[in-house]
Design goal:
Length: 423
RNA sequence: GGGGAGAUAGUCAAGUGGCCAACGACAACAGACUGUAAAUCUGUCCUCUUACGAGUUCCAAGGUUCGAAUCCUUGUCUCCCCA
């Protein structure tokens, strides 16, 4: 199955310039995708683009990831309704290094002709003066052309700085430079990048009469069309320090059937037959959640590691699989290891001496709830469990409730677990 | 430049002197049912609080009034129509 055909099957293809597919079927092509260093880690949404590069490489082509040391200094207006604050050069540099490491985990940099590369567009912009740029590049594109882009049109009402307006030209020049110096013939990206990408192909055509291609993919969305990759606690990051592997795994396991079917096409390297087999198995015994688990396992291993997945599975087993009787069999080290630091709270043992009110413990002594009122409301709504037993307001919590004289297992809702350690 | 409409909680959107912490819808969170799913039903949903209650809200600042989201003044911003 060809690269484009593959994307089509996975429902990932959004738009493609004519003859691109023929070109890809004919020869090894070098293509790039740009990454904006707006944060110090990629999040799951960005990951679909890295997967596109990976698929591209597996199809026998050469992928290049461009980190935006230059473009990141300017700021892409696409999809933004208001002018953004500029990042300082130090932040851009820091973010870019972090993202580079993450992207590197996905691709193969040592497989001969189609080895992947990561380059930084700052390298070809740093010695390019403003005057040179507006003479050598700006002269080839009319303002009329740039003005027609959606990313600009959407901002005409509320205003847009010259800086952001010029963004498409800066990104367009990237494409030109890569085309000229690295033989890149194709730029890919999310569907919001179409305008920026074709400014590049236009530049190549006007400066040198060359031809280059564009291909965009569907932006990942939830089943209801809302933003993907956000949870109550915020975005899901690839950086294990920002989103623990356990949380990461849980994010995928928790998706609905509909979304899991969509996402496995986007984020799994499994082929059509394998995915369809898993779906069939899932539909025969949906309660086993085969689809979600297959997705979560594969993605967790790719982003983190086998070892991280193993730990995430162990934690899942401890928190979801077992009764309190089984939980009690674990030793202290195993219990503490199962909880991330942001769901672990330490309190003084003394507060349990005469028994303590659940509201105070959960809403004040710990930050499991933001206030006592919140804690009370959720407890009243039957939403809190202590050591796997539903909690009510009258229930006093005493030293007898502490496992090993130290641990208290708290659940908020069905799947948010907390550990209180009494010292 | 002239004329008109508007700004209400995360979003949309009622409310036009006391019954307003403010109808309703969506989102979000929780419960039941399930499969850590969906759909459905139920509860919560400005903040804090020992279900009492307290505090701060309806663009901003002043004012009228016993009492204002609602009336008046000024300012800021948005939208529409005519030039």
């Amino acid at each position: 199955m060809g690269f484009v055909e593959e994307l089509r099957w996975r429902n990932l293809l959004h738009d493609i310039t004519p003859e691109t597919e023929e070109l890809l079927n004919k020869e090894m092509v070098t293509a790039y995708i740009g990454f904006d260093p707006t944060a110090d880690s990629l999040q799951v949404g960005n990951m679909s683009q890295v997967m596109t590069l990976l698929r591209f490489q597996k199809a026998g082509h050469k992928p290049i990831a461009v980190v935006g040391g230059a473009t990141g200094m300017v700021g892409d207006p696409s999809g933004k309704s208001v002018e953004r604050n500029l990042l300082t050069p130090e932040v851009v540099q820091f973010n870019l290094e972090a993202q580079k490491k993450q992207i590197a985990k996905f691709l193969d940099f040592d497989c001969g002709a189609n080895s992947a590369e990561i380059v930084n567009n700052y390298d070809w912009f740093k010695n390019f003066s403003f005057l040179e740029f507006i003479r050598d590049v700006g002269k080839h594109i009319t303002v009329n052309y740039m003005l027609a882009k959606d990313s600009v049109q959407n901002r005409l009402e509320n205003g847009m700085s010259f800086t952001e307006f010029s963004y498409q030209l800066v990104q367009g020049y990237d494409f030109y430079w890569l085309w000229k110096h690295k033989g890149v013939k194709l730029q890919m990206g999310g569907s919001d990048q179409w305008g920026n990408i074709v400014t590049g192909t236009e530049l190549i055509r006007r400066i040198e009469g060359g031809s280059a291609h564009a291909l965009t993919t569907q932006l990942v969305k939830k089943a209801d069309g809302t933003k993907f990759g956000k949870t109550e606690g915020g975005a899901i990051w690839l950086d294990p320090k920002k989103t623990s592997p356990y949380k990461f795994y849980q994010f995928w396991v928790n998706t609905s059937d509909l979304e899991a079917a969509m996402h496995i096409r986007t984020f799994s390297m499994k082929n059509k037959e394998e995915i369809e087999a898993i779906e069939k198995e899932h539909n025969e015994a949906p309660h086993l959640r085969k689809l979600q688990k297959a997705l979560a396992e594969e993605v967790t291993v790719r982003v983190h590691s086998e070892e991280a997945l193993k730990r995430a599975l162990e934690t899942t087993e401890i928190l979801f699989g077992s009764s309190f009787e089984e939980f009690k069999k674990l030793d202290g080290e195993e219990i503490e290891g199962a909880f991330d630091s942001d769901v672990t709270y330490r309190v003084s043992k003394e507060i349990f001496l005469n028994g303590t009110e659940p509201v105070g413990l959960l809403g004040a002594d710990t930050q499991i709830f933001p206030s006592k009122g919140e804690a009370r409301k959720t407890i009243q709504g039957n939403g809190v469990s202590l050591n796997k037993e539903k909690l009510n307001l009258e229930r006093k919590i005493s030293a007898d409730d502490l496992l090993y004289g130290k641990y208290l297992l708290v659940q908020k809702g069905k799947n948010k677990h907390f550990l209180i350690i009494a010292n």
